[in-house]
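Lab notebook, bench 4. The sequencing result for the construct came back, and we need a structural model before the next group meeting so we can plan mutations. Quick request posted to the team channel:

Model the 3D structure of this chain.
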Amino acid sequence: MKKHRQYWNFVALSLVVLIGLAAGCSIIHEAPADELIQTPAFLIYTDESNGFSISYPQDWARMPEELLETAIIGFSARKTEHGSTPNFTVLRMNLSSELSVTDLFEISKASLEALAGYNSVSSQQLVVDNTPTIRHIYTINHEGMDTKGMQVLLVQHKSGWIITCNCAPGSFSSLEPTFDTIVTSFLLPETAGARVQPVINSFTASPKTISPSQSGTLSWNVSGADIVTIYPMTSRVNSSGTEQISPTTTTAYTLIATNSAGSSTSTIIVTVTSAGENLIGCDPVSGRNQGIDFTWEQLCLSSEYQVQIAKDPGFTLIVFDSGAYAPGSSTSPALPYPAGGAITPLSRLEAGHTYYWRVRVRKAATGQLILSPWSEVKAFTIKAGLPAATQYFGAQSLSPNNGCTGYPVKPASFSWSPLKGTTKYKFVLAKDAALTDIIAEAEVATTAYKYEGMLDHNASYFWRVMAIEPVSSDWSATFNFTTTTAPLSPTTPESELPPVTPLWAWVVIGIGAVLVIMSIILIFKARQA
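Done. Here's the predicted structure in token form:
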């Protein structure tokens, strides 16, 4: 009996050990990199001069510099496996121009193809340190020795990074989790992994209004941009600088600053005046003309005039015609034109446009109707208005409609508007507006998600999405909906009452019973007699 009990104690202890080992293996293979580096199995190497850090197995040693060739750091195992020593190196390439990670992959692949026995096994896109990367597995025959390797390539600003892991083909399957841990632990400076759109600090023109023979100067300052262009100028410009311009007509100049996170734009208008042209200010409220006073000299004691405004000097595109107009003063005739052209919809004068006007007599002071020749045509220009910016709101909900009620509890399908160039989204569904009580969280390659569970009746839910590949975006607005109320339970029919015996039946039964009793009594008495 004692031996039997010791045997079961041994089995229980063995199970505990096995479960512990299984849990430990699970942690090693499934935990994210930031948890792995906290275990004794890995150490962290930090290169402050190149601005990166990476993890390596604690029983690996740093490779001598004479073996690194062009790499900046490398580590290798202390023992060989299948005739080869597992190792990895980190290479940084200073790029002369902005290249994509695909361009870097093609360059690296061309170098590998020059080696003997090169064969591409697989390549896939993934994300390391919030940056799009390419993972390439291959085999080569280097100096008569078969080698299987994995390269992970990424680009930040004008630096290309290549992490290369090598080992014997027979060891690759067992070392692949270690290689993945090394690669996913690679971290660049915080600003490198989370780029934001360029910021246009300033973009001005001085002066904003010039004559045809005059020159102006554009000045700009941009931060965080890889490419800066100014349209209609065709060549690229530096992130900050000045440029002399000599437009012959009113011109809109647009600065476009671009990097991998997106683009920012800013536009200014340089107004070119013509001879005899007047400038009219832009009304900041309406975005159109300020008030204009048209004045002219009195002609032959005239009492009524006609004033016209057009978009062309030939007056084929007339935007305003006063008809017969009697000015307030016959000796100093004038026509006040309201701000924003609030006379008719067609009379609104837009900012940045040149207009033409003329006047003639319609009626003399004697009452005689006459039409004098038109006056000399004069031009005036409405100054450019203030620049306007439109906020980008990100993905918008398509289904369910934001704020809708009565949404079915099952199936619950969600869809949203796509973001240009996005290949993967992250979806979150929660029971609270702060999205802390999450019931579903998924990464999908399309703009739709189907919740397989069942939602609660008459409950409010909240959801949002964000782009995660090839670059991360901000979260969308938080959308909400309310589910339908629970259906009423069917009414249970009342139990049928037993049939009620009528009174006359009870009377008949009673009489029958009395007759039976009397018959029995008479029978007994007859036998006794």
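Residues 1-40, 387-392, 491-495 have pLDDT under 50 and may be disordered.
Will bring this to the meeting.
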